[in-house]
Amino acid sequence: MNKRKEILVLGLALFSMFFGAGNLLFPPSLGVAVGQSWLIAGIGFFITGVGLPLLGILAFTKGGSLDEFASKVSKKFNTAYLTTLILVIGPLFAIPRTGSTTFEMGVLPLIEGIDPKIAAIACSVIF
User: Fold this and answer.
1) Which of 54, 65, 90, 116 is at a distance of 20 to 30 A from 107, taking alpha carbons?
2) Domain ranges, ordered by start, for the chain
3) Which distant-in-sequence residues (6+ apart) come within 8 Å of 96 by Cβ?
C-alpha cells in the first residue's frame, strides 16, 4: 500500500473512532448548560476531548506495537492491561451498550402488553 493511501485509511479510521454522536451533541448542550462560563468549559472540553486522545495516540506511536507498549512496565502488567483492554472494548461496555440501544430503538416501540424488564432481558440474551 502506498504512503498516501495509508495516511488516508489511518486518518479516516481515527476520525471514525473519535467522532461520534457524543462529539456532535454534547458540546452544544454543554455550552447551553454552562451559560456565561462557556469559554472555560470549552477550554476544558478541548483539553479532555482533543488533547488527551491525541496524547494517547502519540504515546502509542512512540511505544510501538500493543505488546511492546505494555510490556515495558512488566509481563504481568502486560497481561493484565491487554486482558482489561479486550474486556472493556467488548463484553463490559460496547456489547451491552449496543444491545440496550437495539432494545430501546428497535424492540421497545414494537411490543405492547409485555413487561419491559422481561423483554429487555430476552432481547439482551438474543443480542
Assistant:
1) 90
2) 1-63, 65-127
3) 124
Whose cell is 472493556? That residue is 88
Q: Which residue has the cell 491525541?
A: 54
Question: What cell was used for 59?
Answer: 504515546
> SS3 sequence, the chain?
CCHHHHHHHHHHHHHHHHCCHHHHHHHHHHHHHHHHHHHHHHHHHHHHHHHHHHHHHHHHHHHCCHHHHHHCCCHHHHHHHHHHHHHHHHHHCHHHHHHHHHHHHHHHHHCCCCCHHHHHHHHHHHC
